[in-house]
Design a protein that fits this description.
single chain; 314 residues; 0% strand
C-alpha cells in the first residue's frame, strides 16, 4: 500500500487541480483595476480592504470553476479523450489533471469544489458590505459572475447547449468590472475596453483549446463552436474573434473614447494576435495557437498596466 501523502503533497495536488497558473493569470485583473484608479484613491484603506476581501473570494470562485469543470470532464469521459489520446503533447501535460492520474478522487474534488464556491460567495458578500461603492450595475455583474461562472460544464452546463464561449467572455470581462464597480463605482469607457481585452484574451485561449478537443467534446455532447461548425466555419469563427479583439481597441479609438496613447500601448498585442491566427491558418496546430494565446493574453495585461501607470503621469 502506498504511503499517505504529506500535507505539502496534498496541497500540490489541489493546486494542480485548480490550475493555479491560470488562477494567477485571472488575478492580473485586480492589478488592472488598481492601476486604472485615480492615484489618490489607490491607497485608500476602504479600497484596499475591498480588493483584499474580493481577492479572497476570487480564489474560491476560480477554484470552484476549475475543479467542477474537471469533475464533469472525468465523469463524462471528455478529459480522458482529450488528455489521454495519442495527440497529447508537452503543450498539454497530464500532470494538470490529478483526477486522471488517480492522485485525487472525484469525491474529493467535488467536495473541494463545493467548499471553494461557498468560500467565494461568503467573501464576495463581505466585499459588497465593506465596499465604498455598490452601484446596481456592479451588484448585478458580481451576482451573475458568482452564479454563472461555474455553470460552464457543471450545473446548467452552458457549454453543452452552445453558450460556453459567451459565458467565458462575460466571466473574464466581469473579473475586471466587478471589483472596479465596488471600489470606484463608475464605468469609464477606458475601463470597459480594458475589461473586454481581458475577456477576449481568455476567450481566444479557450477557442483554440476547444479546436483541439473537438472529438472528445463531440463524443460527450459538449456543443462548442468548434464542435458545431465545420473546420472552415471554425476558422472563420476564430478569425471573427480575432477581428473583434482588435476592434475593441480600434472602435473606441475611432469614436474618440480612448486616446492614441492607448492605441500605441496595445500595438504589441494586436501584432501578436494577428500572428497567432495567421500561423494557425498555415499550420493548423491548435495547441500551439493556444500556447501563443497565453502569451498574447499576458502581453495584453502588460500593455494595459503600462498604459495605466503612464496615463496618470502624462
Amino acid at each position: 500500500m502506498a504511503p499517505e501523502p504529506g500535507v505539502l503533497q496534498r496541497l500540490g495536488r489541489y493546486a494542480r487541480l485548480v490550475k493555479f497558473q491560470f488562477v494567477l493569470d485571472f488575478f492580473l485583473a485586480l492589478l488592472i483595476v488598481w492601476t486604472a484608479m485615480e492615484p489618490s484613491t489607490r491607497l485608500d484603506g476602504q479600497v484596499l480592504l475591498t480588493l483584499f476581501v474580493f481577492a479572497l473570494g476570487k480564489i474560491g470562485v476560480l477554484s470552484a470553476v476549475m475543479t467542477l469543470d474537471d469533475v464533469t470532464g472525468v465523469k463524462d469521459g471528455s478529459d480522458t479523450a482529450n488528455y489521454l489520446s495519442d495527440g497529447n503533447t508537452e503543450l498539454r501535460p497530464l500532470k494538470r489533471k490529478p483526477l486522471l492520474t488517480g492522485e485525487l478522487t472525484v469525491h474529493q474534488a467535488q467536495r473541494f469544489g463545493y467548499v471553494a464556491l461557498v468560500w467565494g460567495a461568503v467573501w464576495w458578500l463581505a466585499a459588497v458590505l465593506v465596499a465604498p461603492h455598490v452601484p446596481v450595475w456592479g451588484l448585478v455583474v458580481t451576482a451573475l459572475l458568482l452564479s454563472l461562472s461555474v455553470q460552464y460544464s457543471w450545473g446548467l452546463k452552458l457549454s453543452y447547449v452552445g453558450l460556453g464561449e459567451l459565458l467565458l467572455l462575460f466571466s473574464a470581462t466581469a473579473f475586471v468590472l466587478s471589483p472596479y464597480s465596488l471600489t470606484v463605482g463608475e464605468l469609464p469607457a477606458l475601463v470597459l475596453v480594458e475589461a473586454l481585452l481581458f475577456g477576449f484574451g481568455q476567450l481566444l485561449i479557450a477557442g483554440y483549446s476547444n479546436t483541439q478537443d473537438i472529438s472528445g467534446d463531440a463524443a460527450v455532447g459538449r456543443r462548442t463552436v468548434a464542435v458545431m461548425a465545420s473546420a472552415g466555419g471554425n476558422k472563420v469563427f476564430l478569425g471573427t474573434l480575432t477581428a473583434l479583439n482588435l476592434l475593441v481597441v480600434l472602435g473606441p479609438y475611432a469614436a474618440g473614447w480612448i486616446s492614441g496613447w492607448f492605441l500605441l500601448a496595445t500595438l504589441p498585442l494586436m501584432v501578436l494576435r494577428l500572428r497567432q491566427y495567421v500561423s494557425f491558418l498555415r499550420n493548423g496546430h491548435a495547441l500551439l495557437a493556444r500556447s501563443r494565446g497565453v502569451v498574447v493574453f499576458r502581453t495584453t495585461v502588460v500593455c494595459v498596466l503600462l498604459h495605466n501607470v503612464a496615463y496618470h503621469w502624462l
